Amino acid sequence: MSQTATFHDLKGKSVFITGGGSGIGASLTEGFIEQGANVAFVQRSDSTAFCNEMESKHGVRPLFIPCDITDIAALRGAIDTASAAHGAVQVLVNNAANDQRHSTAEVDEEFWDWSQAINLKAYFFACQAVIEGMKSKGGGAIVNFSSISYMMGNAGYPAYTTANAGINGMSRSLAREFGPDNIRVNALAPGWVLTQKQLDQWAEPSALAAHLERQCLKEHLAPRDIVDGVLFLASNTSRMMTGQTMVVDGGVVTTG
């Protein structure tokens, strides 16, 4: 990736990213490394090869902690491990999610609970786990990934869109509760970002063309477009911005 901006205050910061070894998450990890941050991330799949790539490319190795984020005890343990290595977490990016397609009729309790565990519950408990450390550092920044999917009223994954809406509500409440501690909590809602997973599973030509038609900016989103938004929300450049949802989608939905 090539940098479009430098956020000097991110240098040396302790950053924790969920799902930071693949897709948008891998681009986030690299983006923070480029800023000079100390990055730890959790990923369920083996990310050793990705860490090797980052070390070879940047001379810095991110801290990979294998973890299933639905195991809250393991997630808390991973945050403790990251804090022991890099100091208390100052920037948390809740990025990991699963947008498996499903219809309402086929959802049972087990699937519902699984979807909420990944897409909402883990976000809350990761936030809870970093709060005291952020207080000890005089503040911090949390960026929770949502999606424009629920804003568009999309069908095809109602459990996922329910969680996306919940993330916005949670972010606003936590921003209000912890603002006095100088902890900022914002959400970022990406549009359709063409990661390899999207290209492999859903990005067939007619769907891409239809979505591009809905965008004001006639160019498909790449992971770098999302990384820059997250870096902005994590840095002091956005120091008086909290409780907000920032949309990065090329102009599909409107807010305000």
TrEMBL record:
Annotated SMART domains: PKS_KR (SM00822)
Keyword match Protein biosynthesis: no
SUPFAM superfamilies named in the record: NAD(P)-binding Rossmann-fold domains
Keywords on record: Oxidoreductase
Stretches assigned to the Ketoreductase domain: 13-205
InterPro entries: KR_dom, NAD(P)-bd_dom_sf, SDR_fam
Keyword Oxidoreductase on entry: yes
Family named by the database record: Belongs to the short-chain dehydrogenases/reductases (SDR) family.
Protein name: 3-oxoacyl-ACP reductase
